[in-house]
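sry for the spam today, last one i promise. struct tokens for design, 640 residues
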């Protein structure tokens, strides 16, 4: 009976209607909730998706600031370059796209995928740079095949233009694409994948000033990715410009003077610390590093025994050789062990214990005073003085010149050189200092190491008789509008409180090196300006038999330091020629050319006027023939 009652109730039309109404109501309620979720809760998200399906964000890279020399001559600027970019959101099949791009452009699939995957941490709507500095032919191929390369576009960004080629490459540095590690660094938080940043030199250390701020355009495109209109735009901000302390004429003269020789040179204004020339030779082409460096060029750089990629002025560490005798002489004068009249007899060697230390002049220099010892670079004089001083005293005075620690010029990875002490050897090698080792230190050999930059600062300190200005490379930071934002003035960082007569005695000896008969630096002489200097030759390896040709890598280094004018110094120069053998014949001529160019730019020395030469006495316009002036022969009496 109960079952029949249930059946009758189910057949009741009113009850069926009620159940249907409840079911429909539940369904509509669910639809309404879904519509509410989609249109209210997720409205903003779907609006963004919709906009991004038809809008494209095109970054507009900022131009880096210009780099100029002290006289306003542009050294490094910008030029337009084109890159291939991809919008991940618009690509349905990455592998197919990469394969097509590789086939059409002759690019490596692996490299394209690597760049894609590295940059995928950003937004799917942000362009990823797959290839930089593409050629015009590659641009045309891309445009012709755009339908088969969905999501790809050609974007323009500025790259560095080096107006003087390889000139100053180690100083300016080079750019490179920002790395994955740099993107994660707080310092580069506002950078995008594919941006270019300074990797070395001025470009790296002044990145914040030079980079500027990127802009962008939001454009509307159709289904094929074709431009329809610009929706919004933010202009990029050009980076600030740098006015360097470098003098282009002096820099060019210094680099040209090296020719094919390897080495470094630094020229300083002694009364300001401004760097006039900063040379490392041979150089490299910084423009090549903005893109993918061809393997053959990279291998050429790596296999070159002269090491063109090394910044020798900043990182090259060399025994200073006889240029270090300046320090030993000052130490002896300050300690009262010698004066200008103290004489030593040099017969070609110095006996110490059971060992004989030879002078470079095997026949000896005879009776030698301090002036003559500096002029002719007598080793015996300084062996004896070094023995009297001891290594720790020599180290004390060397450190008054900043040797053994970085100068702090504002470039990365500057080397500190080395000034040895007894404690240093005990700590480094666990051995006691041997007295005989002091003799080598006294003439700038043994463990002593210096950089060309340190030698330039040392020479400037001698020129000013103890006042050291902070060496620096930048004079001004200038906004794109031409406003001077920062200016750098001479700053005294150290004063060496030596006796005035000690300075003057050494300076008289350095004057003799260049200007008196027998001076080892005679080839650096300028007849219009008085130059003082010191030659040096530093041993690379000890060779018992020096007869015959010595392989390049075993030849001695040649050094020369100088300042001028002697009476009122303005400029100090340090030159190192790797494996140049003799400072007087290899390094001094380079310093002489640097000094001559500097004083020519000052108008102190007149530049030579090119003369026309005729085969007969008849001159076409009737003008008298100019007298022939023979150059003064270069004098080379010394061998150090």
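last one done:
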């Amino acid at each position: 009976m109960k079952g029949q009652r249930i059946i009758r109730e189910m057949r009741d039309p009113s009850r069926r209607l009620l159940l249907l109404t409840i079911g429909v109501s539940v369904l509509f309620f669910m639809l309404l909730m879904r519509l509410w979720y989609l249109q209210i809760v997720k409205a903003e998200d779907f609006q963004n998706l919709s906009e991004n399906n038809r809008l494209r964000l095109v970054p507009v890279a900022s131009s880096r600031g210009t780099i100029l020399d002290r006289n306003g001559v542009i050294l490094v600027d910008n030029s337009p370059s084109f890159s291939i970019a991809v919008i991940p959101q618009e690509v349905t099949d990455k592998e197919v796209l990469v394969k097509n791009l590789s086939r059409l452009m002759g690019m490596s699939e692996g490299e394209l995928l690597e760049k894609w995957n590295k940059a995928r941490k950003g937004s799917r709507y942000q362009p990823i740079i797959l290839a930089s500095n593409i050629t015009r032919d590659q641009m045309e191929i891309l445009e012709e095949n755009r339908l088969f390369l969905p999501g790809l576009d050609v974007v323009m960004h500025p790259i560095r233009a080096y107006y003087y080629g390889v000139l100053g490459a180690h100083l300016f540095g080079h750019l490179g694409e920002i790395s994955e590690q740099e993107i994660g660094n707080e310092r580069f938080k506002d950078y995008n994948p594919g941006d270019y940043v300074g990797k070395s030199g001025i470009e790296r250390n002044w990145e914040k000033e030079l980079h500027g701020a990127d802009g962008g355009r939001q454009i509307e495109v159709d289904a094929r990715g074709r431009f329809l209109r610009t929706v919004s735009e933010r202009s990029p901000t050009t980076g600030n410009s740098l006015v360097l302390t470098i003098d282009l004429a002096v820099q060019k003269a210094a680099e040209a003077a090296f020719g094919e020789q390897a080495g470094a040179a630094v020229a300083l204004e002694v009364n300001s610390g401004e760097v006039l020339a900063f040379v490392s030779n041979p150089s490299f082409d910084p423009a090549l590093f903005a893109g993918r460096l061809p393997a053959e060029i990279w291998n050429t750089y790596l296999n070159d025994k002269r090491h063109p990629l090394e910044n020798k002025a900043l990182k090259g560490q060399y025994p200073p050789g006889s240029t270090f005798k300046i320090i030993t002489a000052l130490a002896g004068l300050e300690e009262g062990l010698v004066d200008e009249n103290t004489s030593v007899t040099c017969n070609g060697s110095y006996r110490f214990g059971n060992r004989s230390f030879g002078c470079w002049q095997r026949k000896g220099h005879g009776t030698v005073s301090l002036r003559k010892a500096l002029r002719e670079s007598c080793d015996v004089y300084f062996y004896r003085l070094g023995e009297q001083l001891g290594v720790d005293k020599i180290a004390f005075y060397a450190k008054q010149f900043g040797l053994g620690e970085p100068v702090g010029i504002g470039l990365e990875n500057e080397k500190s050189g080395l000034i040895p002490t007894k404690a240093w050897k005990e700590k480094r090698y666990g051995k006691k200092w041997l007295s005989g080792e002091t003799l080598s230190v006294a003439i700038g050999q043994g463990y002593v190491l210096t950089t060309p930059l340190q030698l330039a600062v040392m020479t400037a300190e001698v020129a000013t008789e103890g006042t050291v200005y902070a060496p620096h490379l930048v004079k001004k930071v200038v906004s794109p509008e031409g406003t001077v934002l920062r200016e750098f003035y001479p700053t005294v960082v150290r004063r060496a409180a030596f006796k005035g007569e000690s300075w003057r005695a050494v300076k008289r000896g350095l004057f003799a090196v260049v200007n008196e008969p027998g001076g080892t630096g005679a080839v650096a002489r300028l007849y219009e300006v008085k130059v003082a200097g010191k030659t040096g030759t530093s041993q690379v390896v000890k060779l018992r038999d020096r007869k015959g040709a010595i392989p390049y890598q075993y030849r001695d280094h040649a050094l020369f330091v100088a300042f001028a004018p002697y009476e009122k110094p303005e400029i100090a120069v340090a030159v190192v020629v790797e494996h140049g053998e003799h400072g007087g014949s290899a390094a001094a001529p380079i310093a002489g050319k640097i000094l001559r160019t500097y004083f020519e730019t000052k108008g102190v020395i007149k530049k030579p006027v090119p003369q026309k030469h005729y085969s007969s006495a008849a001159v076409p316009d009737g003008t008298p023939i100019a007298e022939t002036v023979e150059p003064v022969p270069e004098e080379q009496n010394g061998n150090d």
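The longest strand covers residues 74-86. ok im logging off now
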